[in-house]
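User: Quick sanity check before I run a bigger batch. Here is a single chain. Can you write out its predicted 3D structure?
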Amino acid sequence: MIPRLLAATAAAFAVAAISTSAHAEPTSWLAVGGGVSLQHNGNPASGLVKVNDVVGAFTASIGVGTSADHALVVGGIFRTVTHWDLGTDLGLAARFASRGFCRGGFGVAVDLGVVGRFWEQGRYGEYPLQGVVTLGVPWGFQAGVGVQVLNLSGSPQARGGFVVLELDLLRLTVMRQGSGTSAWKNVAPAGGTPKTPSTAPGLEP
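Assistant: Done. Predicted structure follows.
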């Protein structure tokens, strides 16, 4: 059941991306980063105590969304989170992001989705729900906070999270606009440059 749910979610994201690109160039993301992860072992091998593991984390994500011409950009994102000495999460999520974030400036993105954990015999929750809040600043830099809860396959329940610093390579390059272009011009940003009232149709001087 869970694999079918993940496949259906991926197909929905693909359809959404294709439909949005028919009228405007879609937004895209490609980020990597690292930080710290805290994960709760709900069923230790000893069977005596429950433990919390604090480990390093490496993240990588790629996604696509609607045009950044809109104030709210909606899309899908695939994210991996490697918890060192434990294993790697594979996650699909819906992303809701501000226009400023998508155009490489100040902004925020919120991801809500499902994670597959095929490591440690499910002691940390096999299919937890995951939410990630990412705060973006110019030049592609961003900070993310993620939380995992529950377990769609039953027990034990997942309880954990991570804090990471990331660099989005597309927010740094092709998506970059606004204050990020003052020292490094982006002559052809993806999605085009937003029209101002002075250059909008019918308002030309």
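Strands lie at 27-41, 51-65, 72-83, 87-98, 107-117, 129-136, 141-150, 158-168.

User: Great, the batch can go ahead then.
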